[in-house]
Predict the structure of S1-like domain-containing RNA-binding protein.
Amino acid sequence: MNTLPLGTIQTMTVLRKIDTGYVLKQDTEEALLHHNETDEELEIDQEVDVFLYNDKKGNVTATTSLPTVLMDAYDWAEVVEVIPKLGAFVTIGIAKEMLVSVDDLPLFEDVWPKVGDKLFVTLGKDQKDRLLAIPATEGIIERTIDQAPDELLNKPVSGRVYFTNREGTAIITEENYRGFIHHTERKQEPRLGELVSGRVIEVKPDGTVNISLRPLKQDSMGEDADAILEHLEKNDGAIPFTDKSDPEDIRGTFNISKASFKRALGRLMKEGKIEQRDGNTYLK
């Protein structure tokens, strides 16, 4: 059994040349370096730094393309393929693409990453000793991020989603800060690995930030009013909501706060597009 450490960068010695490439050696272990895995001509007894992985047949294979995603080393990897019930494949800069297992993706496929999204991963192994890409845990993120400065408050910010559920979304910003987006500060749940943009609404004492993906009040009023009009048109011009409706009912239907709902209603009434009576709102 070959005991070379897969998923790592090793210094090996060229043992011999063969038709398909080179046989490399480290102590008593060997690995094959194919011609298409190196850009240079190698000589017998030359030392070379290579990344080790297993090919489709399970053989230990070497490449002189040295990735930054390694065993116990984390970096961003781009999603190149998504297969339902299996997972997402990412590229780490070598010929073989690494699988992020379905077990390490969100329960609901509608927030799985899409091709072009990026995941913050390391390498690990499955029960058959095959390399997998493993998303970073919260503990790893805490040791990776920097502390956000207070002056970031109210500033625009962008970042990649590394965790998401119905309660909220966590991102790593482009400046390497941890950001959290409460479910009330987003209109829909972002995908894992998606690049999102918003604004900082709080810089916390621990150096993390809270972020909103919603527009400012003056910008969102028209958008919210359009959503209410669209809902009215889909329901024969009448909805069982007014400015006195329960906040949770409003959020459950329109995904906005009661305050935002009231501002949008006020605008529509001022424009003469709606009226309220008997606990309902009607199109005029």
